[in-house]
């Protein structure tokens, strides 16, 4: 063999072994994909990023790096499964050692296509190690889901609470700490997908949570420290254009008081969806809704709603109209025609017509402060009744009175 070629091969082998050593040390030290990105960035002298599973935030070095959106076979015309490829000013390598769930895409900034052979080698080695790390993390996560999923199912279903406490103790789960029960609901995504996205989101946030599903709800038993705003943002990022709502109970002993907590969460998720459409609603923040929901006998609530909204409910049912919702949005926005019309996605004049129809059907002067108060309370009471009916599992016609 040519001496120069032999020297070059020896240098390449030593370089490869050094790369593998540094990348393996990064993974072994527990810094994960961020550590791999840091090693890759230091070796190449270029900003580096690692996109893991679709929907997750990338690992970047330096941390302030803002890479392009994760390239895919559908978005990048230069996609190559076997070699580095350029996309939006970056050089990328895709690796997938154990099926589609282990796919990672690793990239370094290379706007002038000047990456050297050594830099390409570093990119390829980093993608292989990163893909194996993703597969390892997913295996660990799957094992945790099985273990903690069993406990969450027992908390939800097992009537033998002493047995549940014993299992929790055996797993090191502190059931004496008061926690919250959160219910997640969405009409835009099936519950299995919502469950997977919720499990991924709480893991990404490092949240202390047990997650399972019942019927059309995802159930999350969470600690007080959870960052609700961050959870909502992560879920929104993974469910573009898909609406969801979260109802959260007060703090309770979730082993002995699970059913009570679940009822509170059901009321909160129902009212949250009715009032806000999406986002988080805590039971203790329900205000007057909480007082209404605390009334175990809803007959008086029904009578009150019938007194103020009965004609509107009948009109809506007969004509598939939205007079009750239009009135509610108008009152909740302090009588602002513009804000209510924008929320309802209708023209201002259409809302004015509906309000005139409402005044005619109810015989109420909408300019009268007392009448406005009672009408607003009635719309909130109706929302509460519907949330309570959902929480109790009642079925039947949509009509609430």
What is the strand and helix layout of this fold?
Layout: H1 3-28, H2 32-44, E1 48-51, E2 59-61, E3 85-87, E4 90-95, E5 104-109, H3 117-157, H4 161-171, E6 180-185, H5 191-204, E7 209-214, E8 217-222, H6 228-238, E9 245-248, H7 258-275, E10 279-282, H8 288-293, H9 299-319, H10 323-332, H11 337-344, H12 348-362, H13 369-391
Parallel strand pairs: 9-10
Antiparallel strand pairs: 1-2, 1-5, 3-4, 4-5, 6-8, 6-9, 7-8
Helix pairs in contact: 1-2, 1-3, 2-3, 3-4, 5-6, 7-13, 9-13, 10-11, 10-12, 10-13, 11-12
What distinguishing features does this structure have?
401 residues; alpha+beta; Beta-Lactamase; Alpha-Beta Plaits; Arc Repressor Mutant, subunit A; 5-stranded antiparallel β-sheet; 12% strand; disordered C terminus
The residue ranges in which pLDDT falls below 50 over 5 or more consecutive positions are: 395-401
Categorize the overall geometry: elongated
Number of domains: 3
Overall radius of gyration: 28 Å
Helix/strand order, N-terminal first = HHEEEEEHHEHEEHEHEHHHHHH
Q: Helix fraction?
A: 40-55%
CATH architecture heading of the largest domain: 2-Layer Sandwich
CATH topology category name of the largest domain: Beta-Lactamase
Q: Between the first and last Cα atoms, what is the distance in angstroms?
A: 92 Å
How many beta-strand segments?
10
CATH C-level label of the largest domain: Alpha Beta
- Major sheet: order of its strands? 2-1-5-4-3
Q: Given the structure, what is the number of helices? A: 13
SS strand fraction: 5-15%
Mean pLDDT across all amino acids = 82
The profile of the biggest β sheet is:
5 strands, antiparallel
Structural class: alpha+beta
């Amino acid at each position: 063999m040519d001496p120069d070629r032999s020297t070059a091969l020896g240098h390449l082998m030593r370089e490869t072994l050094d790369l593998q050593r540094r990348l393996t040390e990064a993974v072994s030290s527990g810094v994960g994909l961020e550590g791999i990105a840091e090693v890759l960035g230091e070796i190449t002298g270029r900003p580096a990023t690692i996109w893991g599973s679709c929907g997750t935030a990338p690992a970047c070095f330096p941390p302030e790096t803002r890479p392009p959106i994760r390239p895919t076979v559908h978005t990048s015309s230069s996609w190559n499964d076997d070699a580095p490829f350029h996309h939006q000013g970056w050089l990328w390598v895709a690796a997938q050692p154990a099926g589609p769930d282990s796919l990672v895409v690793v990239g370094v900034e290379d706007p002038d296509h000047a990456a050297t052979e050594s830099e390409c080698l570093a990119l390829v080695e980093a993608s292989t190690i990163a893909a194996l790390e993703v597969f390892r993390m997913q295996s660990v996560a799957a094992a945790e889901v099985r273990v903690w999923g069993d406990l969450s199912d027992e908390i939800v279903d097992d009537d033998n609470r002493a047995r549940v406490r014993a299992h929790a103790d055996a797993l090191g789960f502190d059931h004496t700490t008061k926690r919250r029960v959160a219910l997640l609901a969405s009409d835009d995504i099936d519950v299995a997908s919502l469950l997977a996205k919720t499990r991924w989101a709480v893991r990404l946030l490092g949240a202390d949570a047990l997650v399972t599903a019942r019927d059309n709800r995802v159930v999350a038993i969470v600690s007080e420290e959870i960052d609700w705003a961050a959870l909502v943002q992560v879920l929104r990022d993974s469910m573009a254009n898909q609406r969801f709502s979260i109802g959260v109970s007060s703090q309770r002993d979730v082993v002995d008081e699970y059913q009570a907590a679940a009822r509170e969460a059901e009321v909160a998720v129902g009212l949250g969806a009715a009032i806000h459409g999406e986002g988080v609603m805590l039971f203790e923040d329900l205000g007057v809704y909480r007082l209404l929901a605390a009334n175990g006998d809803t007959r008086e609530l029904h009578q009150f709603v019938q007194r103020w909204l009965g004609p509107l409910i009948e009109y809506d049912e007969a004509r598939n109209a939205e007079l009750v919702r239009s009135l509610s949005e108008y009152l909740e926005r302090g009588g602002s025609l513009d804000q209510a019309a924008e929320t309802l996605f209708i023209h201002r004049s259409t809302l004015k017509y509906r309000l005139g129809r409402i005044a005619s059907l109810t015989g109420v002067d909408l300019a009268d402060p007392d009448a406005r108060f009672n009408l607003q309370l009635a719309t909130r009471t109706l929302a509460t009744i519907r949330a309570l009916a959902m929480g109790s599992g009642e079925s039947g016609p949509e009509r609430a009175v």
